Amino acid sequence: MSQHAPLLQAEALRVRLGAREVLRGLNLNIGPGWNALVGPNGAGKSTLLRALAGLQAPHAGQVRLQGQDLRSLAPGERARRLAWLAQQGDVTGELTVRETVELGRIAHLGLLGTPGPADRAAVERAMALTECTPWQQRRLHELSGGERQRVLLARVLATEAPLLLLDEPTTHLDAPHQVALARLLRRIAAERDGPRAVLSVLHDLPIALQADRVLVLDDGRLCADGAPTDPALQATLVRVFGGAIRIDADAAGRPRVALALEADR
Amino acid sequence: MNADARRRRQLASAMALVIVLGLAAGLATGSAGFSPSALRADLLDGNAALLLGQIRAPRSLGAALVGALLGLAGAISQGLFRNPLADPYLLGSASGAALGVVLVLAAAALAGHGLGLSSALWIERVGLVSAAFAGALAGVGLTLLLARGAVQTLRLLLAGVVVGVVLGAVSDLITVAAPDTLRGKQMFMLGSTSFMGWDALALLGAGLVPLLWLAWRHARALDALTLGEDSAASLGLDLGAVRLRLVLMLSLGTALAVSQAGLVAFVGLVAPHLVRRNAPGAHGWLLLGSAAMGAALLLVADVLSRSLIAPEELPVGVVTAVLGGGYLFWLLRQRTAV
Does the pTM of the predicted model rise above 0.95? Predict the structure, then answer.
């Protein structure tokens, strides 16, 4: 694979949920780096992520993962190349934190394989990155929403897949952990051992604007795609959010976003 | 060893003890109720070979095996459907198995008029297990079909109710048309351990061992399902195939159990609850623990059913229903008291 070949491509992707067409002929390329997917409620962000993960069949168009049609890949092969984090962790059962993170190795172990040193190292590393290690023996249902979210993120990291699709990974996180997550995503995307791409749906615009690249989705279409410092992209963002946000630059020239409250308008 | 592992070991030891004591109590329970002194007298009389070897031992061992199958099927069902209230019976397998049994009984009754008693008995004997198996499978299959898969829990449970009602109505219709089947059907519905001989044990054992092994091989898939169906699929599981295999295991386990002992109530629902509550763990433990818990529960219930109103017997399903219902009621009070 060449340096510039996209890890993931969507071509003329259309997805219907019931009678409604949620994605309307969408084209995109995702390459190494941290890509943030933003847009108003109902824009189709989660549906796009599910379609890219192979969890939602498109009714037209296709998704290519490292050049191959996603549908032609066996489930295990697909899972070794991309990992997906659900928006709402709908978790049942009695698993501990560690057992949950270990599930990330299924694509490598199958249902019966015994974890080897590489699997254990991946699990340890994922827990360390998300700061779950100290409470790895606690059960998921004993954790707060934010703690659980970090465990589920660790489960995704433990796959060591080159492409991570994360739906609202900042949900339930407090401010320090949101900042830590932003740093983590940037670090993963810049890892030296092979190109890694992160595509994360983020409703948190201050975090989204820290990404390498921002994709703006509105009404099932990609309406802007570029660096967060791009003035045209910022103008599109303000427009799709109905003028409810303001974007300016801080002293260092980094984009800064705030809610445009009534008094400011 | 951490606290969880210790709790699991303690519960496993306790269950093993209850199973051993339950088997011993089963041998000592006869027409005089639970009576070790009567057992001693029987042993001295030389009646032991017939009484213990041909009646009490297979019956108690059969109760343990049926209980184990129901506990295992309950744990699979609750894991597969991600619902602690899921039960093999709620998904149409019981009504399907009952319909299968009623059909065979009716066929045997009809054939009894046309073909003579020996062939009728043959149909009844050979047909019951396969009819219960096919009926359970068809019941669960119909539920999954109506629910359009196992994605939505509420839809699934509703579909199970619909299948239960409809197949139950068909069974009722057949019993109205062929009243000879009524008595057999009632025995089946109440559950009983009294008809199990060594051949039944061989069948139950031959089913239980591979099912335990197969289910245990799917423990990691059931663990993955706790994260949600989409997350499990994203981990690389072929969810359609995994779900189908789990439904087959669950239906086979339930069908084997109900074909030998009828519709023993609540064991499949309560056994996994008791294990989770006392020693929670991943499915590798939960599946085997629930089977052991089911065995212990049905053994105790069997001894109670034979001793409470001796020399008469209560149907064992009535005892498990009272015990299981009581436990769930207690659980409900515990929850609301918090």
Answer: no
